[in-house]
Amino acid sequence: MVGVKPGRVATVCALAFGTLGFVLVAVGGLATVVGAAGLCSLAVGCLTGSRSAVTLGAVGLFAAMVVAGVGGVGAPTLVGSSAAALIAWTVGQTATELRTAFDARARTQALELTHVAGTALVATAVGGVALAPQALTVDPTPLGTTLLLGGAVLLTTSLLGSTRSGGE
Amino acid sequence: MSVDEEGEIEAGVRRTGRWRGVGAAALLAGAIALVTRTPALLFVSAAGVALLAYERVVSPPPVSLAVSRTVDDEDPEPGAIVSVTLTVRNVGERTIPELRYADGVPQTLTVIDGAASVGTALRPGAATTVRYEVEAGHGRREFRPGTAVVRDVTGVIERRAQVAVSGDDTVGHRPKVSEGAAPSLPPIAARYVGQHPTDRAGSGLTFRSVREYQRGDPLGRIDWRRRAKTGDLATVEFHEERAVSVVLAVDTRLAAALAPSAGEPTAIERAQTAAATLFSGLLAEGHRVGIATLGAERAWLAPSRGAEHEHRARELLSAAPPALSADGSGAETDDWLTDRLPPHATVVLLTPLCDDGVADLARRLDAAGTPVTVCSPDPTATETAGQRLARLERRERLRRLRATGIPTVDWEPTGDLDRALATARWSA
Fold first, then answer.
1. I need a surface site. Which of A73, A143, A152, B14 has the fewest CB within 10 A?
2. Are B98 and B154 spatial neighbours (Cβ–Cβ below 8 Å)?
3. Residue among A112, A130, A157 whose CB faces B50 most closely
4. Which residue, of B182, B215, B241, is where some domain finishes?
5. Residues B230-250 pLDDT 10s
6. Number of domains, chain B
7. Nearest chain B CA: its distance from A126 CA (Å)
8. ipTM of the complex
9. pTM to 2 decimal places
10. Residue partners of A123: CB distance under 8 A and separation at least 6
11. Looking at residue B140, which CATH number applies to its domain?
């Protein structure tokens, strides 16, 4: 791996996972167009070092996934595509950071490979947790569904508030 | 988990914000799922909530690093290539999945091969080695502590810390204050007669030598005994008692960290070189010589003589410019310097004269009766209009100082110091 510039490994991995996320949901015309645009933006961002373009690409992949979901694609595929888009987004940002933070002759391959593997592990675990309820068979009642929905919204806003304050 | 105004959860720990927007995406996916009656999207929303939960609970590993540095030549000549080897070891019990380490290379050194930073992952007990080469500059430079940033495996939270490095912490050539040329002060600067005999022949009390009579020698100094014995006229010489206390005031402020182009020594480095040369020359003349630095981190070495004094001066002049982070000009510097000057001391100001503050300092000292001379390494260039303007302004400052009777030496970037001193009649 000697001679590989900082961010190159992360760029390749981000594009690979971005492509995976795109392929999983490219089932209809609109989803394919939106996803392809997102993938292009992701590639441009990784190759030029633009973090905004990387994020825009991730948004495109997410939008393609939503369109595909509305179009009838199953939950495991959607979650898998989301996880791949998340990895592409995270690793793509790392690629842009490394390009600017390190001298071109610095060694960062170990960091990049560990980061890609670790992020993929976290994304897989998160996807597994999200899909776990699908394995359970319960009779939904209106009250239970309402309580579950209310609890989910409260949990989301609570987590959102705490992470946002820490991320400022 | 409390957060301070700078976004730090605890000292040195902050979230990177790279998953900013995940919460909104989760809510959006949930809303679309409800509106379009698409249950599958609820699972995507749930995944987003799980991500937020992960970001909420994860913590960065501690900066449990032991870093050692080896420099292959601690005392190289200026321009020599020096190889630096770093070993970074994780001495903690937790894996560091993402470590970014940057060595504290002195600002005036240029890394010419390799990189002084590394990004890696370290298991407990594991180590990585980094090698890079720098070109030694003028004077001795101290490495700063390294900077380490450790992150969790996804990079959503990081801990930043300075890391002390064991092993070699300096590189560069020590100026040899005892081996320089022997410049003297211009006559106007040595106006005060001191109590210490010099090696120069002149009027005094201590016998120095007998030489052949020259027309105009005082009658009282003719060796009449020799005249009676041999018939030759000879003149007795004594050690001239003219030694003064001299303070070499080196401008180490940020405003003096200037060079004609990148890679050339800065005015601070050249001023240190000139100070080392003057120090040796003035000591050889029998003067008591001290050193002051005019940066924010001021250093003072009272005028004295002797081997111990020379050693301390050498350490002081070989130190890295201490004031590259702040400016120390103004009346405060005047007070600091004048409070320490011994009575009848002469000040030799070594400065590029690239701002009015230091020129005003020279004038104020002169007005207060302190003999001041200025040795000014020229850091200006002529490539751009701004550089030419800066050169003109500096020359105007020099002209004004000369107009007030302050002796000055203008040391050009490509010029030789000894020649500049000789041109200004500073040579002994």
1. A143
2. no
3. A130
4. B241
5. 888 888 776 555 567 888 998
6. 4
7. 6
8. 0.80
9. 0.61
10. A83, A84, A86, A87
11. 2.60.40.740
